[in-house]
Amino acid sequence: MCIGCTQNDLSSNLDNPSLHNNSSFPLGTAVRFKPFQKDAQLRRLQQHHFDSYTAGSDMKMNQVMPTEERFDFSIVDSIIAYAEEHNQRVFGHNLVWHSSTPEWVRQKAKQNPKWLLPFLKGYIQSYVGRYKGKVHGWDVVNEGLNTKGAGFRTDTIWYETIGLEYIEKAFEYAHEADPDAILFYNDFNIERDLEKFNTMIEMVQDFQKRGVPISGIGFQMHIRMDIPNDIIAYTLKTAAETGLHIHLSEVDIIFNTHDDTRGGGIERYTEITPEMLVAQAKKYEELVKIYMTTVPKDQQYGITFWGFNDRDTWIRRFFKMRDWPTIYDENLKPKPAFYGFLEGLKSNQISSKSNLN
Ligand code: XIL
Fold this sequence. Notes:
Layout: H1 7-14, E1 27-31, H2 33-37, H3 40-49, E2 52-55, H4 61-64, H5 74-85, E3 89-97, H6 103-111, H7 116-130, E4 135-142, H8 157-162, H9 165-177, E5 182-187, H10 194-210, E6 216-219, E7 222-224, H11 229-240, E8 245-254, E9 257-258, E10 265-266, H12 274-294, E11 300-305, H13 314-319, H14 336-356
The structure holds (3S,4R)-3-hydroxy-2-oxopiperidin-4-yl beta-D-xylopyranoside (XIL).
(3S,4R)-3-hydroxy-2-oxopiperidin-4-yl beta-D-xylopyranoside binds near residues 142, 188, 220 and 250.
C-alpha cells in the first residue's frame, strides 16, 4: 500500500510496461537520495523501470568528504542498502571530477602540492575499498578532457598539481582497491565533437597499450534533438572497437541549447508541441537502436538516464531554461519518448531472438 498517494497514481504509473524487464542490458537513472526517500511515487517508478542505481551527486567528492579528510558515508551506505533490497546494481559516480572537488582540497593542494597525489590514493582506496563488491563500476575520472575540441582540461587542481598522470593514477588506485570493479572514463559531447572524441580514444588506446586498468568508456549522452544519428553511431562503434564496456551514462535529449556552463541556457522553445513530443520519441527510439547495433552485446554495460522525468530534470535547474529532456512528464506520466525508448528496446529482443533461430 502506498501511503499518501491515490489509487489513480498507482494504476496509471505501474500499468506501463517495466523498461528493465524489456531490456537485455541494465537500465538506470540518476537519483537524488534525499528527495527520493520522501517520495513514494518516485521510488515505485524507479523500482518498476530500473535495475541500476546511479547517484546524481550523492557519491561525489564534495558530498562524501565535505570537510578535511573526514569521510561521511551515511548516504552512500543508505544507497547501497536500498539497491540491495531492490536487487539493483550500484554504479559509482564519480571519483575525480574538477567540478565536485571540494574547496578545501584545492586550498590544501595549493599550499602543499606534494600532498595531493597521496591524498588521491588514500581517498580512492578507502572509498572503493569500502564498497568492494558492492559498487559494480565507477566513473573513475569524469570530464578530464577540454570542454570543446582536442586536448585535456588543464585548469583543474588535479592537472595543475599532478599533471596528466592523475588520470591513470586514479585508475590504478581504484583497480588496486577493487580488481573486479568496472572502471570507466566518462565525458560529455564525445558522441558529437570528433576532436574531443579522438583525444579520448588516443588516451584509451595508450592506457590499453601500457596496461593502465581502464575497462569502460562512459558517453554521458546529454544530447540535443539535432545531433545527427550518424555521428553518434560512428563514435559509439569506434569506441566499441577498443573492446571496452560502453555505458550511455547520463542520457537526456533537449530541444533548446546552452553554452555548457551553469545558467547558460538558450531558450528557443518555450513550450512543447505534440509534434515535438513525437519527434523526441523517435530520437529516443533511434538512440537505443544505435546503441544496440553498434555496441556488441557483451560490451553493453547499460543505459542510464540523467533523471527520468521533466519535473526533476537537472537541465532546468542547472542551465536555468525550460526544456523537456526526459521520458516522463512533470506529472510523472510517460511521454511519447517513453514508448519510443521501449520500442527501441523491444526491437533488440526481436532481432536477438531471430538470430538464435
Ligand atoms: C549534475 C547534477 O545532476 C546536478 O544536480 C548538480 O548540480 C551538478 O551535477 N555531468 C555529470 C554529472 O557528470 O555529475 C552532472 O550532474 C551533470 C553533468
